[in-house]
Structures are given as structure tokens and as C-alpha cells.
Design goal:
Layout lengths: L3 E4 L2 E4 L4 E7 L7 E8 L6 E6 L7 E3 L7 E6 L4 E6 L8 E9 L14 E2 L3 E6 L1
Parallel strand pairs: 2-11
Antiparallel strand pairs: 1-3, 3-8, 4-5, 4-9, 5-6, 7-8, 9-10, 9-11
Length: 127
């Protein structure tokens, strides 16, 4: 069982930077592929970024955030981060982190393959 707790959300202006954190419980964090998803009002939850296990050597991003967001992990701290730069109003959403058992060091982009989810953190970007 893995418990995930996100933090770092809040209100900011367009162009600002923000870092989201997701801390996982347990001693097997490095065995999980991690992902960030978001859900804007009235829209379905979508994949934002993913990172492979164990070292995070592979990453993936949705096109709308490429070049602006960076995902990385710290296996000592059991934490995955999402650095959000040059934020836009359309980045406003509830952001969720998720964990998926994985082998082979792949990045997982499909929601249904993630077994554990955090409670979400609200990110609001004003224009």
C-alpha cells in the first residue's frame, strides 16, 4: 500500500513558477513509476507528466507543457516533483500525483495503470 500526499499548490499569476511535491509512504518508492495528472473544471482528468522507475531516467510530457514543466524524483526523500515554469491560465486545475508498479523502466501514461492516487492540490493561474 502506498499513500501519496501532494503539496505546493496555490494561486499565482501567469508567468510565475511553482513546484509541486508528492511524498510517498513506504520503503519501495523507487519501484514505482510516478505520474502527474490534472483535472480542470468541466474537463476530464488528463496526463501531464510521467517518470520512470527506479532512477527517473525517462520522462514524458503532454504537448501543452513541454518546455515549461519538469518532472523529477528523489528516491531518498520518497518524493516526486513537478516544476512548473511559465505557467498559463489554462494550467489551472487540480493536480494529482499517482504511482504505478512498473518494471523495465518505462514511463506510464495511461491512468488506468496507476494504482495509487493522492488527494490532489489546486493550482490556479490568473492572467
Amino acid at each position: 500500500q502506498v499513500q501519496l500526499v501532494e503539496s505546493g499548490g496555490g494561486l499565482a499569476q501567469a508567468g510565475d513558477s511553482l513546484r509541486l511535491s508528492c511524498e510517498a509512504s513506504g520503503r519501495t518508492f523507487s519501484s514505482y513509476a510516478m505520474g502527474w495528472f490534472r483535472q480542470a473544471p468541466g474537463k476530464e482528468r488528463e496526463f501531464v507528466s510521467g517518470i520512470s522507475q527506479p532512477s527517473g531516467s525517462r520522462t514524458s510530457y503532454v504537448d501543452s507543457v513541454k518546455g515549461r514543466f519538469t518532472i523529477f524524483r528523489d528516491n531518498v526523500k520518497n518524493t516526486v516533483y513537478l516544476q512548473m515554469n511559465s505557467r498559463k491560465p489554462e494550467d489551472t486545475a487540480v493536480y494529482y500525483c499517482a504511482a504505478a508498479r512498473a518494471v523495465g523502466g518505462e514511463v506510464i501514461t495511461r491512468q488506468r495503470l496507476y494504482s495509487y492516487w493522492g488527494q490532489g492540490t489546486q493550482v490556479t493561474v490568473s492572467s
